[in-house]
Amino acid sequence: MSQDMSEIWTVLNPDEKRKIIDNFEIHNFRKNQIIYAEHGEPESLWCLLKGKVKLYKEGIGGRQQILRLIRPVQYFGYRAYFAQELYVSSASAIELSTLGSLPMSLVEELIDGNRRLAWFFIHELSRNLGSSDTRIVNLTQKHIRGRLAEALIVLRENYGYEDDGTTLHIYMGREDLANLSNMTTSNAIRTLSCFVNERLIIVDGRTIKIIDEDALRKISKHG
Dihedral (C-alpha) 78, 83, 89, 94: value to the nearest 10 degrees? Predict the structure, then answer.
């Protein structure tokens, strides 16, 4: 997964850090509020400070496919600028979230003068590409049970548990779960019910408790 803010901070000199501090803007987004939209002009490097964000693409019939989940403190929104193209996906807040932004023009200026910063972004983009390749295979080759089990594990690995050690620290509706798993909402609901009957999870509204993580991982692995 992505490196955090402290790691990128170590490759900057004092003057570069001052430029970032002077240009860093804080934004608050409501639940489901759009951060940037597909086909928009990429102008900012975004950093999630608090909350949860999803990157998604609109598909056929307006159905979403969630491409990636962002957790604090991760960077996103810069790929399109480096590719010199418009955004090919959208980003929105899953819950009340606080983000910081930097102008990509400043990021480009800093990269021009700092090889280590350039390598940071090369590393980030390469890791994200590898993760995307793996995810494409999983979404196209795994059966429904494997895809939903994988989605639950992804949520657990990105956002962890509540203090009780079993409740996922994210409240996601059935439609978003389906969009993360590349399935219809009805299939997601049926498969969740199967997992409940098998005593792998407990579902209460948008709250999901994972009872048998090892079993879910096996289902995810074997598809």
Answer: -10
Which of 134, 115, 146 lies closest to 215 in space, CA to CA?
146
Residue 102's Cα: distance from chain center in Å?
A: 19
Please, which residues have CB within 8 angstroms of residue 63's CB and are 6 or more apart in sequence? 179
Per-residue CA distances from 201 to 7, 98, 99, 137, 211 (Å): 36, 30, 32, 25, 5
The whole-number mean pLDDT for each consecutive block of 10 residues of the chain, a chain of 223 residues, reads 60 92 96 96 96 91 87 94 96 97 96 93 88 76 90 93 94 90 92 96 92 94 77
> Which residue, chain included where needed, has tokens 């803010």?
5
Identity at 189, one-letter amino acid code: I
- Token pair in block for residue 124: 């980030």
